[in-house]
Amino acid sequence: MTNALRLGIAGLGTVGVGVVRILRKQAALLEARTGRRIEIVAVSARDAAKDRGVPLSAYAWETDPVALAKRDDIDVFVELMGGAEGAAKDAVEAALRSGKDVVTANKAMLAHHGQALAELAEAAGLSIRYEAAVAGGIPVIKALAEGLAGNEITRVMGVMNGTCNYILTRMEATGQGYNALFQEASDLGYLEADPNLDVGGIDAGHKLAILASLAFGTQVNFDGVELEGIQRITLEDIRQAADMGYRIKLLGVAQRSPRGLVQRMQPCLVPAHSPLGQLEGGTNMVVIEGDAIEQLVLRGPGAGEGPTASAVLGDICDLARGCRLPVFGQPAATLEAATPAQTGLPAPYYLRMALLDKPGALAKIAKILGDAGVSIDRMRQYGHTDGAAPVLFVTHKTTRAALDVALEEMQATDVVALQPVALRIEHV
Ligand code: NAP
Ligand code: HSE
Question: Is 364 tagged catalytic?
């Protein structure tokens, strides 16, 4: 009887091929570390004829990932196809129903169906492991579920989408526009099959919802994430924020508040010299705050073949060693249904607008802010071009609701040339 851990891998794209490569190259190392051989038994993808740059002839080929998931000769089903619904979910459910543990990198599926899948797995005494689903190569799931298990987690925040950070930092460094840099990110293999998941903030929102569940013992609630993408950020925003000492990041924050669970993923300003401000390219950073640890900062590659496959291998090795944990750190049946916070916590905001060259224009804007209860911390006006001048404000802490009242009033004046931009400022 073999003691090998037998894998079925569905999905042979960027991540799947990376996993096959590591399993082939590091077979001896993995056996030494886990005490078992780890074997690929069968694989699946859509196109059997495609040259994927790795030898696959030694493995059985299944056209249907569900059939692969049900095979009697595998112990672990490795799902690397992607997509919240369809083949990935059907195959994962089939694997759990036929007694297989699951390893996946699929944050979309977990963000939408994490609770139901966790209940299915735990009822059968099985595991779902998903280190690669959040922040690529950074072992953040392990950090929250295991290393920090003795902490009450107070806040989790981070930059968790490599594509967005790549585009934003390269816009600043090269002065090139969004479209050229979107293409570069695509060439690096960072993008999801549907790129709107990246630039619309949805992919990062999926990751934040998963981390919030682990951190706060709540059921994954992606619908409760306040979401905004980076599509409206211009070179001008990036340059002028830099002028005020900030950088723009697609930043996720999850924390418990007296008003409920706060989960937001949106472009924010962070101090340029802070660790988050200095994060370049496709790199991710997750900041975890807990009562005993105070603050932990994890930084590393958030996407791409090697880093993501590395995280998948960490999960496979844990299963080979017999390490089993509840899917979201505590039994799924004990996870609370979280109430999303209806009103956001106050924060300072950055406001950018263009004011027409009319007497009293600035005074009108300052009065509107004052009347809405928004206090100005700093302000800068640049010279006029074509009759309008860019004006920047940094406010003291205020609520988004108060700011929205002021923004609406501003639009109704005869001094604002362009729709004002308002971005939250986060200090870590
Ligand atoms: P990918 O390059 O697009 O590969 C997807 C693979 O799944 C392809 O081999 C495809 O087959 C196969 N596939 C898709 N639908 C299928 C179906 N119905 N039946 C059988 N096979 C099917 O995707 P990826 O970048 O490797 O991502 C895989 C997963 O990892 C996703 O959940 C993604 O969100 C996650 N992830 C990716 C990264 C990254 O850096 N790329 C990082 C973290 C997490 P064909 O090749 O024949 O078309
Ligand atoms: N599209 C994702 C990103 C891949 O850019 O971060 C890693 O999850």
Answer: no
